[in-house]
Design a protein that fits this description.
By secondary structure, the chain is of the alpha+beta class. Helix content is about 35%, strand content about 25%. The chain has twelve helices and 20 strands. The strands form five sheets. Strands 2, 3, 4, 5, 6, 9 and 12 form a seven-stranded antiparallel beta sheet that branches. Strands 1-11-10-7-8 form a five-stranded antiparallel beta sheet. Strand 13 and strand 14 (about 285) form a beta hairpin. The protein is globular. The protein starts with a strand and ends in a 9-residue tail after the last strand.
Length: about 425
């Protein structure tokens, strides 16, 4: 009996993001998802590079070593990201997760870096087959947090591994046995961070892969759609018909296709514009207004536009400072006008500024400015590193021969959007 793959793939910008930094690929032999980070265009560049690089494996013959082929593709993506950052300073700080499954005929090669996920539904039971590379997951592994506590932890977005072109991202690699009837789900945290595992399982029990994928995206949107949502649902089937052609979605398709739009965008297009919508859905043209009213309206709209522009600019600024006894990421600017603070708390770290060197405490008092939230998280992660590297306790040295104790260090996390 010959087995093959049948898949459905979806990507949605969500309800709060302006663009889609997720990217995904599904083909006869390869499934992959990537979640970009870095803000502005950088995140989508990183995820697109990762997907385009690993997608070349789909067109090649079965490699003698699937895991070596996946690792080579990962290293190629890292080189490409590094070269792009070197050639364009505006891309500094970008990175991406990458989770991929490569069909080998007798099994699936799994590659995983970051916190996008792969699940296996077998005999009605759903199991996560990847392990999140996050700071919070390390706390769970160490028994310091429960899964429920981790889901609301303020530092749950900090990655310990990612493709960023700077550090070497060591992937998790494995060969998985396949069985007829297996169903795999690959997704970004825009789904797994919003929808509980039991609800994922119930949705994946829908027989049609496309309907299951649509249901998963709808559930993430119903949960607030705070992030981009990308899913690949794939079934292991008896291979009796030509495989489906390759499909690319999200940022990987954005360079050559229209921007991704979600249901909220479609609804806005349907009901937007000048005019009035009746209860039956018919749109009537707006009635003309007198000239004085139009002038007053134009002035009012101009003032509102200026105010809105200032508000949006303020909301796009970030800095790292101190709130109480915690190092904190603030949204806004470190100003106060007439007792009104021009900032609010975005994220709070479990880090006491008293544990930092004096020069870092002084910088925090003024506020360490960051151009966006991912960059602010990088600053915070560096400060965590400063706290983590500390000299071991020393005893009083002999009067004549000082002998300081060696320093010890522990690994510290890197940030994600």
């Amino acid at each position: 009996m010959t087995l093959g793959l049948r898949f459905a793939i979806r990507s949605d910008v969500g309800l709060l993001r302006e663009g889609n930094e997720d990217a995904a690929y599904a083909g006869p032999r390869l499934l992959a998802v990537a979640d970009g980070m870095g803000g502005h265009a950088a995140g989508e560049v990183a995820s697109r590079v990762a997907i385009q690089t690993v997608a070349t494996l789909d067109a090649e013959p079965d490699p003698p070593d699937a895991l070596a082929a996946l690792r080579d593709a990962l290293e190629g993506a890292q080189r490409e990201i590094r070269e792009r950052v070197a050639g364009d300073e505006s891309l500094a700080g970008m990175g991406t997760t990458l989770t991929a499954l490569l069909w080998t005929g007798g099994g699936l090669g799994l590659l995983h870096v970051g916190d996008s996920r792969a699940y296996l539904l077998r005999d009605g039971e759903l199991r996560q087959i990847t392990h999140d590379h996050t700071f919070v997951q390390e706390l769970v592994d160490a028994g310091q947090l429960t899964e429920d506590e981790a889901s609301v932890h303020p530092q749950r977005a900090l990655l310990t591994r990612a493709l960023d072109g700077r550090s070497v991202a060591e992937p998790d690699l494995a060969i998985r046995e396949v069985r007829l009837g297996d169903r795999y789900l690959l997704c970004t945290d825009g789904l797994s961070g919003v929808v509980r595992a039991e609800t994922l399982r119930e949705s994946l029990l829908i027989a049609d892969a496309g309907a299951a994928a649509d249901r998963l995206v709808a559930l993430a949107l119903r949960g607030g759609g705070p992030d981009n949502i990308t899913v690949v649902v794939c079934d292991v089937v008896q291979d009796g018909e030509p495989p489906a052609g390759p499909t690319v979605v999200g940022a990987a398709a954005g360079a050559d296709g229209p921007p991704a739009t979600g249901p909220a965008t479609a609804e806005h297009t349907l009901t937007g514009g000048s005019g009035e919508q009746t209860s039956s859905g018919e749109v009537r043209a707006a009635r003309p207004r007198s000239r004085p009213v139009l002038v007053a309206l134009a002035v009012t709209l101009g003032l509102l536009a200026i105010a809105a522009g200032g508000w949006f600019w303020l909301r796009s600024q970030y800095f790292v400072g101190v709130h109480g006894d915690h190092v904190t990421i603030f949204r806004g600017v470190a100003w106060s006008i007439g007792g009104l603070h021009m900032h609010s708390v975005a994220e709070q770290l479990a880090l006491d500024p008293a544990d930092l060197p004096q020069f870092e405490r002084e910088r925090l008092e003024d506020g360490i400015i960051a151009p966006n939230l991912p960059q602010a998280r990088q600053v915070a992660a560096r400060l965590v590193t400063e706290r983590c590297v500390a000299p071991a306790p020393t005893t009083a040295p002999p009067p004549t021969i000082p002998s300081p104790a060696p320093a010890t260090s522990t690994p510290c996390p890197a940030p994600q959007p």
